[in-house]
Amino acid sequence: MVFKHVLKWKRGYSSQSAISRVKNVGIIAHIDAGKTTTTERMLYYSGKIKRIGNVDEGDTTTDFLPQEKQRGITIQSAAVSFNWHANNKINLIDTPGHADFTFEVIRSLKVLDGCITIFDAVAGVEAQTEKVWKQARNIPKICFINKMDRIGAGFSRTVKELMVKMSTRVLLLNVPVFRFDAAAKISVFEGVLDVLNQKVLKWSPDDPDKILVGDSDVGNEYRDELMKCRESLVETLGEFDEQLVEYFLDKAEGDYMQIPADLLHESIRKATINQFAVPVLCGSAFKNIGVQPILDAVTRYLPSPFEAHQPDTNIPVIFTQDKNNGIVVNGNKNLCLAFAFKVVSDPIRGLMTYVRVYSGKLNSGSTIHNSSTGETFKIGNLLIMHANVTEDVKQLEAGEIGVLYGASVEKKVKTGDTLISHAGKKTGLRSLNKQELALKINPIAVPPPVFSVAIEPRTLGNKKDMEQALETLVCEDPSLHVTLDEDSGQTLLSGMGELHLEIAQDRLLNDLNAKVNVGKVMVSYKETINEPTKFETASTESGYHFSVSVEPYVGRKQDAALEEWHDLNTDNNFLVIEKSSTPAEWPYQISKESMTNAIMSSCIVALNRGSKLSNFPLHSCVVRVKRDWRMPIDATSATNILVMSRKLIGKCLQNHPEAGFSVLEPIMAITISAQQQDLGGVVQDLSGARKAIIDSIEEEDEYMGGTNLSLEFEKLAECQYLPKDPTLKNANVQNAGSSSKIIKAHVPLKEMVSYMSKLRSLTQGRGSFHMEFHGMSKVTSDRLPTILDD
What we know:
Layout: E1 2-4, E2 22-28, H1 35-46, H2 66-71, E3 78-84, E4 88-94, H3 102-109, E5 114-120, H4 127-135, E6 141-146, H5 155-166, E7 169-172, E8 174-181, E9 186-194, E10 199-203, E11 210-213, H6 220-238, H7 242-250, H8 261-273, E12 277-282, H9 291-301, E13 319-322, E14 326-329, E15 335-346, E16 350-359, E17 361-363, E18 367-370, E19 375-378, E20 382-386, E21 389-393, E22 395-397, E23 401-405, E24 418-422, H10 434-437, E25 451-457, H11 463-476, E26 481-484, E27 491-495, H12 498-511, E28 516-520, E29 526-529, E30 536-539, E31 545-552, E32 563-567, E33 574-578, H13 592-608, E34 621-625, H14 639-655, E35 661-674, H15 679-687, E36 693-699, H16 710-719, E37 741-748, H17 755-763, E38 768-778, H18 784-789
Parallel strand pairs: 2-4, 2-5, 5-6, 6-12, 7-12, 33-34
Antiparallel strand pairs: 1-11, 3-4, 8-9, 9-10, 10-11, 13-14, 15-16, 15-24, 16-23, 17-22, 18-19, 18-24, 20-21, 20-23, 25-27, 25-28, 26-27, 29-35, 30-31, 31-34, 32-33, 35-37, 35-38, 36-37
Helix pairs in contact: 5-16, 13-14
Main location: mitochondrion
Function: Mitochondrial GTPase that mediates the disassembly of ribosomes from messenger RNA at the termination of mitochondrial protein biosynthesis. Not involved in the GTP-dependent ribosomal translocation step during translation elongation.
GO biological process, one term: ribosome disassembly
């Protein structure tokens, strides 16, 4: 029978939905798994759009940035809202799959109640999918095995990898149906076997609106597989749901086929929300096969806002669940609690802040208290976003995702802020107590940057515009960092990878119209002194006498009785003034503080100029003023002291032999996560090409939050019924999950530039690393020429 989905899969949009029928879900996966393609079909089948866009043609709804259209990838998360079955509202966030944009996924997960995880049936479980699965470990999920129409697609192989690598049980809601093409001598994917409703669904290859639905009796061709799938489904659910077991034994009399679909739906829902197992579906989004069952699964099995896990908080409060008000804080239904998870710059509306409302109602014109900053302000109108299309609304109810904008909001809210308001009164903050106004939820950990480039204005007149553009860029994407290198004078833009920075540069130049030049980052090398210089002395007829030397700082204990130590607060350098025989009462007209400050200033300038070896700034040095210093009693100006001491320090450094200096380079402490099978290549690259010192190699276990469950789920996977699949023998389930190793090492910063690309190559994209400054170390003689030549 051929029909258009006007009943079960009905198109339509309703402006209001009860909170129990709201679903805040996100799509997560590895790059090119088909997230945006699947999102586009969901929007089409819901009636939100009338034409299906194509990623390759750059006309999809959620990939609307110019950079996304040009590259065919998702760069920033996009929110869309639509209805399914007329009265179920789905707020969907399409997230990027590239590792460089992992922060987009991190902040989106903070406001989601459920996830759709998409797998490429040819590639199986890929690296970034494993990563985002771990990031979403507290969020219920459903899984969609996509691209079943491709040559080499393996449904059962992917399910087996899913079980072992993600340490999860599976509930097969549908399995693939193939038709053998005798002319081409290949099996053609054309539909799915609906395990719960006991039907075969076949989609028309010519019309995305047509579905070929078989009779309730699936016939002998699929009867055996249907029975095995049902048996496996009930057996898995029976481990969790005792009521289902009782029904199976008492009413169904041990017949798996006699358990009604509604009872199975309820059992699957409970198992999904409690994360006992994940429902698994399959299809081909590009061929318009199997998309409607995903939407059914979202509305049936994923939690509504009042059923979802409670937000993380900074202070102890009592959360209760209310079907009308969402999460209620300390029983106060008048408290509106919202979370800002994203800020974007719009050329017309300015900065727009995306928020998720957790409790109460957020009204336009309300007075808002930002508990993260302590600032209170009034908001204007509110929006609901449909990708880049806006819809004005008067209020956002609990569970909804919307946008604040306007001059009253700009720069007063940033990513990760908690917003509090009175749910009824527009100026009712005074009725809320101090604890409620101090509440903060869902802290976002910003991953550290691993790569940097230098940014400079084309002219001095462009400097202010450059700074404003960089401020906007970092406001939108906190995973970008802007720092000023005091030594080189460069402004450094740091991010998660080369593509991340490439996109940031494109936005700076084309979207924000910043007149800047982008160059390569320069590693900040230093010098140090190996042994003390000779004392250089200067005496004047007017009564000044100083003897100065420069020596290496070795962290020795200070002798407060004989000398005064002053931290120069730059490059681990110090000034030491030996105490003279001058009486305790200071006899000079110039203050002791002025004299000390003058000498400190001369030290900073002289040491920053470097030595005659390379002119790198000096690091870990002590400038010592000998005990016999003196000056005129009537001295009132520090100028003579400043000039004299600066010349003496310079003389000390110039008269010291070149062999008495060493070049220092920054050393980074790195922590790398890699699979066991990739360990050899990673370690060899570190110790060989990158001159690293390996400190330790450990099991990942608690360090990365992993658990050793792979062996248990390998056994479960062997017992799980899976349809015939010629690619099953190629399942990549050995040494999975907890076999990840943590490598700790110290590496010169110069060797870590662009390391992320190399690590991804060595680990097939599965490796990740964290890097932080450890200290400065002397450059070995074999590497010195290359550094000096740079």
